[in-house]
């Protein structure tokens, strides 16, 4: 199998794409709660955190990645909103039921660690191990980008 | 897909070729973070995955912390020009 020819693309967008999405989310939060600010600060933190993950998933390409799709779906389920898919084509996905996945298993040591990883990466539960790793690579890059954006924002706001 | 069993360096588990490629790709991104302690072909798969799990957990924790700080900072912000300038500078 000429698998070496298949280049695994884990490019992520530039930082400002993430920044733009995140700032947009934040400003939406503010317009939603202009004067009746929620009393519990933990609610605010939770909303910001959720905005961070959702904006990250959107910046990363929305439905074009398995993890971002799973993340957005999970977020929409929390809001009880209907998830809007830009393309409703039934493409061949990498989602394999766990029964089939077991037949493709690697060495148990690897599978054990992969299982832990599956719990951390959104949508990991349905992925076969090699696909899981590709998604994880992209997820990590996006997450670190998001962290950088938030750090910049915090730094900028702290220097008054 | 042939498993190259001649590749049994240390206690490396049996991995197929394309998974090896995936691992190497992942490694090249993770290595800057963990400081290149080992050469790429000597690291076992499970170790890489473990490091990845730890890294993801760290990133999640960072997001939590930064969300908290942002929440505090955004509360104390009024709609004045300094903050708008900061935001504008981020967008440039």
TrEMBL record, chain B:
<dbReference type="InterPro" id="IPR036638">
    <property type="entry name" value="HLH_DNA-bd_sf"/>
</dbReference>
<keyword id="KW-0175">Coiled coil</keyword>
<feature type="domain" description="BHLH">
    <location>
        <begin position="4"/>
        <end position="59"/>
    </location>
</feature>
<dbReference type="GO" id="GO:0005634">
    <property type="term" value="C:nucleus"/>
</dbReference>
<dbReference type="GO" id="GO:0009640">
    <property type="term" value="P:photomorphogenesis"/>
</dbReference>
<keyword id="KW-0341">Growth regulation</keyword>
<dbReference type="GO" id="GO:0040008">
    <property type="term" value="P:regulation of growth"/>
</dbReference>
<dbReference type="Pfam" id="PF23174">
    <property type="entry name" value="bHLH_ILI"/>
</dbReference>
<protein>
    <recommendedName>
        <fullName>BHLH domain-containing protein</fullName>
    </recommendedName>
</protein>
<feature type="coiled-coil region">
    <location>
        <begin position="49"/>
        <end position="76"/>
    </location>
</feature>
<dbReference type="InterPro" id="IPR044293">
    <property type="entry name" value="PRE"/>
</dbReference>
<dbReference type="GO" id="GO:0006355">
    <property type="term" value="P:regulation of DNA-templated transcription"/>
</dbReference>
<dbReference type="GO" id="GO:0046983">
    <property type="term" value="F:protein dimerization activity"/>
</dbReference>
<dbReference type="InterPro" id="IPR011598">
    <property type="entry name" value="bHLH_dom"/>
</dbReference>
<dbReference type="GO" id="GO:0048510">
    <property type="term" value="P:regulation of timing of transition from vegetative to reproductive phase"/>
</dbReference>
<dbReference type="GO" id="GO:0009826">
    <property type="term" value="P:unidimensional cell growth"/>
</dbReference>
<dbReference type="GO" id="GO:0009741">
    <property type="term" value="P:response to brassinosteroid"/>
</dbReference>
<keyword id="KW-0805">Transcription regulation</keyword>
<keyword id="KW-0804">Transcription</keyword>
<keyword id="KW-0539">Nucleus</keyword>
């Amino acid at each position: 199998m000429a698998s070496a020819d298949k280049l695994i693309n884990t490019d992520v967008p530039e930082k400002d794409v993430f920044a733009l999405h995140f700032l947009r989310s934040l400003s939406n939060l503010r317009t939603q709660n202009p004067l009746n600010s929620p009393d519990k600060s933990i609610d605010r933190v939770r909303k910001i955190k959720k905005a961070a993950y959702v904006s990250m998933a959107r910046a990363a390409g929305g439905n074009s990645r398995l993890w971002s799709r799973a993340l957005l779906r999970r977020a929409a389920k929390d809001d009880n909103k209907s998830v809007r898919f830009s393309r409703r084509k039934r493409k061949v996905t990498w989602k394999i039921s766990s029964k089939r996945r077991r037949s493709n298993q690697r060495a148990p040591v690897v599978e054990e660690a992969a299982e832990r990883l599956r719990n951390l990466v959104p949508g990991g539960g349905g992925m076969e191990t090699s696909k899981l790793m590709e998604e994880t690579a992209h997820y990590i890059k996006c997450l670190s980008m998001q962290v950088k954006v938030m750090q910049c924002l915090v730094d900028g706001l702290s220097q008054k | 897909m042939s498993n190259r069993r001649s590749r049994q360096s240390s206690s490396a588990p049996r991995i197929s070729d394309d998974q090896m490629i995936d691992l190497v790709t992942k490694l090249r991104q993770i290595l800057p973070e963990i400081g290149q302690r080992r050469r790429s072909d000597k690291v076992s798969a499970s170790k890489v995955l473990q490091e990845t799990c730890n890294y993801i957990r760290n990133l999640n924790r960072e997001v939590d912390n930064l969300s908290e700080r942002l929440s505090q900072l955004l509360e104390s912000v009024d709609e004045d020009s300094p903050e708008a300038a900061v935001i504008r500078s981020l967008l440039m």
